[in-house]
Request: fold
Amino acid sequence: MHTELFNKLSAGDIASLAKAITIIESNKPEHQKIAENLLNEVSKTKNQSIRIAITGIPGVGKSTFINTLGTWLVNEKKLKVCVLAIDPSSKKSKGSILGDKTRMNELSVLDNVFIRPSPSGGIAGGVAAKTPETIKLCEAAGFQIILIETVGTGQSEIEADNIADCVLLLLLADAGDELQGLKRGIMETADIVVINKADIVNKSLLQTSENELKSALSFLPAKNKGWVTPVIKHSINEKETHKEIWNQIVKFIDVQKNTGNFDVKRLKQKKYRITELLKYNFEYNFLELPEIKKEIEKFSQSSKFKHTEVLDFLKKLIKNWISKNDANT
Reply:
């Protein structure tokens, strides 16, 4: 099944791409083996894209920004654009609204466009658990630009920098967001800062916000060698602002490649992903085993939860599990 699915999505079949993403996002045992084989096939492809994360607080206009920028990239630059819109999930029900696509009405009807809303699954950091793997599938399907819309939870969205080549931080001039420049965290991850909805703010306030942001950025340590984070004013109805943002993205990627930072960052992201997959599998596979759950329940009832006690229990639990699996192989 995975071979046929891979052949179809690599040929650009959108339905097959959507099906493949559903499979890799699934926690069902019957899907996980298919997902592993599928991702093995995908890893052999050499297709690459420019991965751009769009981040900012809720209400800053991320979906509308992506709708206009994405539409411009398709119509003016003739690029294939994929949008991964991450929706927040309820920690209690694990449910998600998945409504971002409805705010991208212009972009969603164009050819050479794929929009995939995905629940965050309660994962901290503003991205979904399987976003890196979804990116790989979209690249295999021939998409040249991947726009990743994070959930918009503010300071926690530094995770976006671990999956993207370029991070765009959207701010509002009239909502006090320029003060975010005085906070570290997400401001330090921004490669380009965009003052969104600039056309609905008076020019004096807009200029003040721009000056304050530039000043705040100047106090932060340089994130990238040879690059000063620009502050760009964006208006939805002005095509020139789309062009300016795109030119800055291309310029940033060129600088990254010329300094060697691009490959270094991709390697760091790969190492980070390996670590995250280990953590993920430990939590959702190892800790979900019936025998492990039983041992944890037994320990929790008998222990006084001293720190050293817990660590010793964990070491013993893992050691016994490894020994048991070695004996069965």
Summary: The chain has a mean pLDDT of 83.
